[in-house]
Amino acid sequence: MIRKHFAGFAASALALAVTAQAFAGTVTTDGADIVVKTKGGLEVATTDQNFSFKLGGRLQADYGSFDGFYTKNGDSADAAYMRRAFLELGGTVYKDFKYQISYDFSHNAGNSDDGYFGEASMSYVGFKPVTIRVGRFDPDFGLEKATSSKWVTGIERNSAYELADWVNGHENGLGIQVSSTIADMAYLSASVASKDINDEDGKSVKQFNGRAVFAPMHEAGNVLHFGLDVAVRDLSDAAFDSRIRPRLGVRGVSTSGGNDAGSNGNRATFGGGTGLTSNLTAVGAYDTDTVFGGEFAFATGPLSLQAEYLTRKMKADSDAYQDVKARGFYGQVAYTLTGEARTYKLEGGKFDTIKPENKQFGAWEVFYRYDNLRVDDKNIVTNSATREVGDAKASLNTVGVNWYANEAVKVSLNYVKASTDKITNANGDDSGDAVVGRVQYVF
User: Which residues belong to the signal peptide in this entry (predicted)?
Assistant: First the structure.
């Protein structure tokens, strides 16, 4: 017999052992009955929903070939790497407490000092509809970031996020977030996090995020979504990496998860980096770092449209420096050729998967995305071999196709064309081409 207060864990382990060994017989407890599900991972739960346990994960294997601006000498290079290899564990304890742990075996998340965790958090849902989450997690900022990497349309999220990659990354810190859905048409969240950047006194830099989504239409194939985002951090007494270094949609120029282009990969610095010593800007160079964002999405049947805008300002804290400003946006149109609609979740304000109706041929989706970036750094006062004085700009045209073979397997292929202004590679190239493919398995 298993006591009730151990039902969520002990019974889960027992059920797993029984199903794995295929023994005959019945598993019983002195509490609620237990349900075991094996579709999409392994899930064990009590029928009263007080306890649950789910083991799952995702594997994303990428290969890309690219040239021009994407390499320092302009010649063709390629990269084969595990973009993500997450093992995920989540569940419920005593009905009102939720936990979620994900570990990235590809080592693209986290680092060797703090662990390669994508998330390690605990949430309390007893104050419905309010959720309080504590731990390591990505703060809310942006529609594409809210959408899981499993179900974003492009292989890589839009490049505007790379102008301020700190806004929705956990950076190995810890935080607390309060979120809620309101009147079945809105989603709100606010968070504060202690990041792994310290000031001169050893006090961690604090980051504040806020997101508001209004979605009066939020059913699959019938979505109207508007959102506003803000993120701010105080860097007045901290040394930090201020470089703005977008990969322009091609992770293979520099990745932690396997083979990349090595020393020939061109992850260029568009701006920032004033007074760098060992990649860190000197203390006192900048004060606040503030980012604002806007979101829009519309979906009707198999057609979906979405766009986001981001603007950033690193405010100078010394007469020796100038403010650094950046802005970026993208617009995207996607269409499911086989007729399925993309699902949407109001809680979190995000799109989700496409579920194939035809189990033999799956679902086929095509899309086009246009990205535009601009970085204004008046600290750059002389031309260099790769960066001219003035605003550095980049535009990307991405076309792609996604095949949802079933609910677990997704195959993607993207072609990316990049053009730049005021910034080149060492060979003088101001444009580049890339073809990137991905095979994904979710369980």
Answer: 1-24
Tally the C-alpha atoms within 13 A of residue 388's C-alpha that lie toward its C-beta: 11
Task: Give the three-state DSSP class for 16.
Answer: helix
- As given in the structure block, the two tokens for residue 46 are 């009590």
Cα–Cα nearest to 424, from 396, 385, 378: 385
| The CATH number of domain 34-442, selected from 3.40.190.10, 1.10.238.10, 2.40.160.10, 2.30.39.10 | 2.40.160.10
Q: Is 159 helix (H, G, I), strand (E, B) or coil?
A: helix
d(CA 266, CA 246): 10
- The residue behind tokens 């040239």 is 67
By C-alpha distance, which of 292, 211, 208, 279 is closest to 244? 279
CB atoms within 10 A of CB 337: 11
DSSP secondary structure code for residue 395 in this structure:
E
- pLDDT tens digits for 23-76? 445 666 666 788 888 877 788 888 888 999 899 999 999 999 999 999 999 999
Sign of CA dihedral 177, 326, 420, 296: positive
* pTM score: 0.90
E-assigned strand segments in 256-285: 276-277, 280-281
